[in-house]
Amino acid sequence: MSQVNIGIIGFGTVGAGTFEALNTNQELITNRVGAKVVVKKIADLDLETDRGIFVDPNIMTTNAMELIDDPEIDIIVELMGGLEKAEEFILKAIKNGKHVVTANKALLAEKGEKIYRAAIKYGINISFEASVGGGIPIIGALKDGLSANRIKTIIGILNGTSNYILTRMTNEGLPYEQVVQEAVKLGFAENPPTLDVNGTDAAHKLAIIVSIIFGAPVPFDQIYREGIDFITPDDIRFADEFGYNIKLLAIARDLGEGLEVRVHPAMISKHHILANVNDAYNAIFLEGDFVGPNLFYGLGAGKHPTGSAVVADIMNVARQIKLGAKNFTPPLAHAIQPKQNICIHSIDELTSAYYIRFSALDQPGVLSRISGILSKHDISISSVIQKGRQIDGSVSIVMLTHESREIQVQNALEEMKGMEILTKKPVMIRVEQQ
Known about the structure:
Structural class: alpha/beta
CATH class of the largest domain: Alpha Beta
Strand content: 25-35%
């Protein structure tokens, strides 16, 4: 086959970046694939918006089924996002014998099992490098380069918007609300950036990573996630005094009897390599039992980085088509599926050190009452910082605990609710000690 035809469904930022990469590096791509990769048709509901690149209007349509039912199209590239319609189109494409490339992290994280089963049933290749980390080739590394390893630990900064917000807050001492407003104006964040800042986007990506590592879809609703909207410049300054930076981390660990899978803000030592990943950059730190520690770093979103990952998948599938492949690697790269479902531990079972900030009345006995309740729940205090009186007459008391169980910390904070000495709800941030 001297030509491989593709159809693109969804022509927004990533779709335009994919089309641009295919055109700009057409000769390079042809040489590496051994066949010309041609965009035969593009489907999008908006045919009027200027994407900044020339597209022959004759290949544009508003009807995605024209691509899915076209016998000459070999690969469907789904870049429309969303859940129901994207799932419908992908499943129809698979049944029609078309290979699929997608960047749809939410779909794979929440509905991936059905899609993976369909791909295996119909002997179809489904590729999704662009669903995690933009231009960072983490999916390929996990499926191939690191496939001989048991991956015990994953710690990642997987959302560029949250990382940009926290970086601005750290470097400039700005409040969360101001940075979010500026990020929206500059185009770094959606308006509102809910899925980015509440941990959902990072959890989608973490679910995909963990699914590949263990060979089975992760139950997404069991992944604990927490956002960054409660973080203040005070918390960032106190973290700095303790020797930490605050990052939104996606963490997964193999505990032997189950998995720890969670997304939340965490204090991480300034000496850790992830502590210095700033602005809109993503990074994924992992440890394999044979390869040891690895770090993947780069832009986790954007027209060109994500388009690059989409085209890499297209090229990989096109090579196999060119070679006449009849069988393909299973979507999660495990020929034999695990016998048991993935068991995710509750966040209540987590053992960690904790940062807790109290806003309390400036009067004698306050510290002893707080520490007494913590002691009652077997929580040992490592360090304490107390700052002077604030405008409202309260003082900040900040504690760093030794390792404790999450449920003990939550129970202690629950007992403190309604205490007349506290002027605000306590702020708790977990400390990542990897």
